[in-house]
Amino acid sequence: MKAGGSSAGSFYRTLRSQRGAPLLGEINVTPMVDVVLVLLLVFMVTAPMMSRGIDVSLPVANQPQIPPQDRITVSINAEGRVFISDRPVNLGLLEDRLRGMTSGSPDPVVYLAADEALRYSEVIRVVDLIKRAGIDRIGFVYVLPEEKAK
Predict the structure, then answer these.
(1) Distance between CA 149 and CA 49 in Å, rounded?
(2) Which of 58, 69, 74, 132 is least surrounded, with the fewest CB atoms within 10 Å of its CB?
């Protein structure tokens, strides 16, 4: 029995001595990373092709064309007079007029053009009236320096 056991040990020692270093059980991950990157590239290219929509022939409706919403502009000149578009309006009636003009709009927008010589409090008073009319979206009209030079 000793002879069989010693011969197996000597065989292992000879395998070990042929290579010079002990056998290592490590996995080389470089080829695995290469394969994973190729698979990632394949999935990135093919994924958009998988989510193709269904071809449907839609019916035609006789819907009248909806006109674009007119732009509502509130202007305040250097003297403090208020205008809706080009028509002068009393400051006390501004809220009611705007509410009447935007009653059919789900999300109305008003553009405010104020003279730069006005006091800040006068502009804020008009902004407050616009907001009380139920209009939360206010666009402030301005000119660029190149346009002002003309």
Answers:
(1) 54
(2) 58
